[in-house]
Structure formats: structure tokens, C-alpha cells
Design goal:
Layout: H1 2-26, H2 30-45, H3 53-58, H4 64-82, H5 87-90, H6 94-106
Helix pairs in contact: 1-4, 4-6
């Protein structure tokens, strides 16, 4: 019983902690807001390629541990995207979309 439940219980605890930190300290951070804007744009354009962590947790029947792992993978991609020069002005460009698609293909989960 523990082997099947503990990973998801641990994931729920971690997701809860991260959500608390996000809501309490990141919502005024311009980089965080830009990241969320890019993620939403990309998810709207490529829903089969990018499902935001919140949607994975809230609107999916997949295990929480899987959602957490995929969320970490996507966060790694977003860190690289946010390091692109002038990302603030080109965030919705084909260049950024192509980079995200390439990173997803290169590191497919």
C-alpha cells in the first residue's frame, strides 16, 4: 500500500508547498509573470505539447508524482527560455516557440 501511495502523497505535499511559495512571494515578480504568460501562450497554441502544472494537477486523473515530475521538466525548459536575449519583447515570437519545441523534442519526457 505504501509503495503505491507514498510517492503521490509526497508529491501533494511538495505541490502544496510550491503553490504557497508561488502565491506568497512570486506573483509580483516580473520574471515569474513573464514565465506564466509564455507558458499560457504556448499551451494555448500547442495544447498537445504543453500542459501547465496547474492544469495537470487540477484537470487530470494522472498521478500527482507524474504531474510534479513533468512540471519540473517544463520548469527546466522555461529557465532556458527566460535566458534568451530580449525575451521580454520576443516572448510570443516564432523564434521562442521553435526553441521551446526543440527543447521539448530534445528532452522528451
Amino acid at each position: 500500500y505504501e509503495k503505491s501511495r507514498k510517492p503521490n502523497a509526497d508529491a501533494i505535499a511538495e505541490l502544496s508547498y510550491r503553490n504557497f511559495m508561488e502565491m506568497s512571494s512570486k506573483t509580483a515578480d516580473p520574471n515569474f509573470l513573464l514565465q506564466k504568460k509564455i507558458e499560457k501562450h504556448f499551451a494555448d497554441k500547442f495544447p498537445e505539447k504543453w500542459i501547465p502544472l496547474y492544469s495537470r494537477v487540477t484537470f487530470s486523473n494522472r498521478p500527482y508524482a507524474e504531474a510534479l515530475s513533468l512540471g519540473d521538466f517544463q520548469d527546466t525548459i522555461m529557465k532556458e527560455i527566460l535566458n534568451i536575449k530580449n525575451i521580454e519583447t520576443i516572448w510570443n515570437s516564432a523564434e521562442v516557440e521553435n526553441k521551446m519545441l526543440a527543447l521539448l523534442d530534445k528532452n522528451s519526457f
